[in-house]
Design a protein that fits this description.
15% strand, alpha/beta, binds flavin mononucleotide
Length: 213
Amino acid sequence: MTNTPLFIPVILGTPRQGRQSEYVAKFLVEQIATRDDVTTELIDIRKVPMTTNDAGESIKDPQFSGTVERADGLIIVAPEYNHGYPGLLKHLLDTCLKEYIHKAVGLCGVSAGPFGGTRVIQNLLPVMRELGLITIFYDLNFSNVQDLFDESGNLIDKPTYIRRLEKFMNELVWMSSVLRYGRQEVNVPASQPSPEVATSMDADAKAVGATSP
Ligand SMILES: Cc1cc2nc3c(=O)[nH]c(=O)nc-3n(C[C@H](O)[C@H](O)[C@H](O)COP(=O)(O)O)c2cc1C
């Protein structure tokens, strides 16, 4: 089994002008880069080329796909929009399938309100499961985010969030390590991943000439 550092990129899940989630994602990348058991990079959704006149694997961006393929785990920074996730984040996630399977994911909710994106996290959970990602049982929450950073984008109460991030990362590293071991060493046929079912259903629909409404 390889002992190379885990690769866990951070997806910044909104393209919105003035997004506060950018400060959060940059803080995570900066802190994670100080660990010697993980390498990371920022995946800014604004920079991933995507058309919006189609969806799914047919609009896969090779660079995003390659990064997720190389990853041992993911962190998703998701702002809460009307208790849900940004549509463009789902659109991006939907462009890959097999790249996610049996990899760990940690969720970071960001909100203007007091609940720290707990509702967007709850709404992301079934999506993660369908993609074949394994969620950890510890989340990061940035509530009242507009009050957390100074005008230069520096977190005001760093020690509190560094402490929480360490707990989150320790769990994510554990899960990512176990899953990497499993992908490399466990020679038991896995049950058929749900995304493959979705793909074959799509092929079946095309075979019988089903058309979109
Ligand atoms: C369309 C939209 C819907 C929003 N809905 C919520 C919400 O349901 N709950 C909440 O706490 N904040 C909500 N917000 C505020 C965001 O959570 C806030 O902008 C926060 O800074 C995180 O998003 P950002 O990264 O886009 O800035 C909403 C913002 C937008 C643009």
